[in-house]
Amino acid sequence: MNYLVTIGLEVHCQVKTQTKMFCSCPTSFGDEPNSNTCPVCMGLPGALPVLNKRAIEKTIVAGMMLGCTTPTISKWDRKNYFYPDMPKNYQISQLHAPLCDAGSVTLDVLHYPKDVQKQIKGEPRVIRLDHIHLEEDVAKSTHAEKRSLIDFNRAGTPLMEIVSMPDMETPEEAVAYLNALRQILVYGNISDADMEKGQMRCDVNVSLRPKGQQELGAKIELKNLNSISAVRRSLYYEIERQAEELDMGIEQVQSTRRWDDDLGETQLMRTKEDAHDYRYFPDPDLPPVETTALVESVKHEVPELPAAKRERFVEQFGMTDYDAAVLTAERPLADYFEAAAKGCKSGKKLANWVINELLGRINAEDLTIDQCPVTPEKFAALVAMIDEGKVSNNQGKEVFTVLWDAPGQEPAAIAKEKGFEQVSDTGAIEALVDEAINANPDKVAEIQGGNEKLVNWITGQVMKASKGKANPQVVTGMIREKLLG
User: Fold this and answer.
1) Span 220-263, pLDDT tens digits
2) Torsion-angle region of residue 450: left (phi > 0), alpha (psi -120 to 50) or beta?
3) Which pLDDT score is estimated for 4?
4) Parallel, antiparallel, or unpaired for β 255-260 and 220-225?
5) Start and end of every Asn/Gln amidotransferase domain (predicted)?
6) 213-216 long-range contacts, CB within 8 A, separation 24+
């Protein structure tokens, strides 16, 4: 309570390309260790790098999606350090002239952890970006008790580093930032951003300072964060650790610490000063990139962003803000909904069915929307049948169950086979309505006396008499007309 917390994130995200950043080796995941290598990504003498144009283009598109500007000239630098995961003993990166400057990420309620979403009030927080630069990824190190194993398949993969300004104040904001950023990158097909596969990783910078002090405290960098939940847990631990030491008068020193997820604590790795520790200098093997033509050529690749799509869904389909946020959380789900909406008049009813029935089944079976066996067209046909009163809501759920297990069938055929087709013929329904009214004079008197809730009770009697086949909307309307005028 005595300190102000300041948090900034450096997010490393692999760019989705077929080949590596400076050579033609494939970037596929899960191949035999050390099978996707060549003299360039292994750092052998005399091997020269060649720029991956597609990686540069996708980084520029990412910058556009995040509101960044792209300088007309971008340059490459060598970041020198000695570690087994970088065989050249330097990493090709960008320090002085990155591909993207500034920009921002907006945090909406659903980006926050579920346990705090109800506490988020006011205008959405906007986290500023410092820059985005492009570099090459390092090899994957696996540390055993007495040895380390190195897989160079990942070495040289195009890697964006998205550096935020120190604008976050809580672990929950850091989680929301990562969720929002990942959503945008996946929307733009920039990256799959799968943290389990190492496609997205982050380093966290956190500092504490006494309330009222303008100058930021010593920056502590946290490494080895392989999940969004680990980011939240490590921040809670580190904030408490720094606060306890500051309370004891122990001055914090700029340093790098690793997060041990098993122990639930951070551990000192090394003290660190500034960028000059890496002895950056311009890479002599790579020319500067003129970006003007590239920027123009990729403008058409910028998709409708999640926030804009949410607003459009609310306006176009008449759904709630919450429903729109759920449906636009992932681009494949939004695409599925829009494809289905072409064959369904009621976007609001379709949204309810997608969220409650379709997503419920997908989550229960641990599938993705791309693995859904029911096509958008058939799902739309089912919802249209319900909306038009051809089947009831409960009957629709039964049709959906059959359709899920046998996706080759048609919803209408399933409904017919099960005898679910509802009767909308007013003559047949009127006879049942008259019978229910005549059999329940006491209920009719109460309805006409002002207890209109009993209309639903009379409707229920008609539905029983029709064995669920009468259209309940037609039934209710007819009862109201006969009893209430």
Assistant:
1) 999 878 899 999 999 999 999 999 999 999 999 999 999 998 89
2) left
3) 95
4) parallel
5) 335-483
6) 213/4, 216/6, 216/166
Report the largest interatomic distance among the alpha carbons of the chain, rounded to a whole angstrom: 98
For 291-305, 347-361, 423-437, which range has the lowest pLDDT when averaged over its residues? Answer: 423-437
How would you label 304-315 residue by residue, b for 16+ Cβ within 10 Å and e otherwise? ebbbebbeebbe
- Highest CATH level, class, for 426-484: mainly alpha
Distance CA(204)–CA(8), nearest Å, equals: 6
Neighbouring C-beta atoms of residue 323, cutoff 10 Å: 21
Amino acid at position 277, single letter:
D
Q: Which pLDDT tens digit goes with each residue over 374-429?
A: 999 999 999 988 887 777 788 889 889 999 988 888 888 888 887 766 655 567 77
Cα gap 180→137, rounded to integer Å: 23
Sheet holding 90-93, edge to edge: 90-93, 77-80, 281-282
- The mean pLDDT of the chain is 90
Angle formed by the axes of helices 454-465 and 426-439, nearest 10°: 120
Element spanning 122, H or E: none
Helix (H) or strand (E) holding 132: strand 125-136
Q: Is the pLDDT of residue 275 over 70?
A: no
- Domains in the chain: boundaries: 3-298, 304-417, 426-484
Are residues 137 and 157 in contact, defined by beta-carbon separation less than 8 angstroms?
yes
Intra-chain end-to-end CA distance of the chain, in Å:
66
Contact, 177 vs 60, CB < 8 A? no
- Span 349-361, average pLDDT: 92
Mean pLDDT of 21-27: 95
pLDDT for residue 386: 85
User: Distance between CA atoms of 472 and 443, rounded to whole angstroms?
Assistant: 18
- pLDDT at residue 127, rounded to an integer: 97
CA nearest to 420, candidates 452, 397, 440, 454? 397
Residues 195, 196, 197: CA angle, nearest 5 degrees:
90
| DSSP structural state of residue 154 | S
Separation of alpha carbons 336 and 382, rounded Å: 15
- Cα separation, 51 vs 288, whole angstroms: 10
User: Of 1, 479, 12, which Cα lies nearest the Cα of 240?
Assistant: 1
Q: Which of 65-69, 265-269, 415-419, 425-429 has the lowest mean pLDDT?
A: 425-429
In sequence order, what DSSP letters do the residues of 213-276 get, joined into one string? Answer: --S----EEEEEE-SHHHHHHHHHHHHHHHHHHHHTT-----EEEEEETTTTEEEEEEE---GG
Helix ranges (DSSP H) in 51-121:
53-65
Instruction: Count other C-beta atoms under 10 Å from residue 99's C-beta.
Output: 25
Residue 66 DSSP class = T
Angle made by CA atoms 102, 180, 379, in degrees to the nearest 5: 135
